[in-house]
Write a structure and sequence with these properties.
single chain; alpha/beta; five-stranded mixed sheet; two-stranded antiparallel sheet; 6 helices; about 30% helix; disordered C terminus
Length: about 200
């Protein structure tokens, strides 16, 4: 068993929840979903992560560059436990492998995020070398305490434009939300004074 704490290289994987709006022809997964919301999540993921995978109701975890056919499957059509087990198997598959990752940026709604978290827990129950202890999963939207899609899109746009994983959107340009990243920038007082 390798000691990952001595390895100075880190890898961040972004996991993006899929979207309903799709192209009518087979496409790379990153291009199949056509909503502005998905496009912004993908832009954020490609900006801050080393590798991008998509969490799909039809395919489980899919490498963003894999070509897939359009489909109409939604979470309502799936047996939840079957999907959890499929995602769990994908955690060590080529192109979606998580065994060398240190961090996951999860960009998905609550239902998809729950399936993903349960898949990691399921994998850890059966694996010789569990992923959970080494893998820091950051549920981006939950940790930043974001509401609906509009709020998430505004937040993502600011994060990308300011090159901050969690912008506050105010004049200070400090990072907020995603508590584990706090302190990456020096807070500036908005009242003209200095923070102590």
């Amino acid at each position: 068993m390798s000691d990952r704490s001595t390895d100075e290289t880190t890898q961040t994987i972004a996991v993006i929840g899929c979207g309903n709006a799709k192209r009518d022809e087979a496409s790379q997964a990153r291009e199949l979903y056509t909503s502005n919301y998905f496009a912004l999540k993908l832009e954020y993921a490609e900006h801050f992560a080393d590798r991008v995978v998509i969490l799909s109701a039809e395919h489980g975890l899919v490498w963003s560059k894999r070509t897939i056919e359009p489909y109409d499957t939604t979470l309502d059509d799936c047996d939840r436990q079957v999907l959890v087990e499929e995602v769990s198997r994908s955690l060590r598959s080529p192109f979606t492998d998580h065994s060398h990752a240190d961090e996951v940026l999860l960009l998905a709604g609550r239902d998809y995020a729950s399936i993903y978290q349960d898949a990691i827990a399921h994998e850890d129950e059966i694996a010789f070398e569990p992923l959970g202890p080494q893998l820091n999963v950051v549920d981006v939207f939950a940790e930043a305490d974001l509401g609906g899609i509009g709020e998430q899109m505004g937040w993502l746009r600011r994060a990308i434009d300011k090159d901050l994983r969690q912008p506050d959107g105010g004049e200070t340009e400090q990072q907020t939300g995603l508590d584990r990243f706090g302190g990456r920038t020096v807070p500036v007082a908005t009242d003209g004074g200095q923070h102590e």
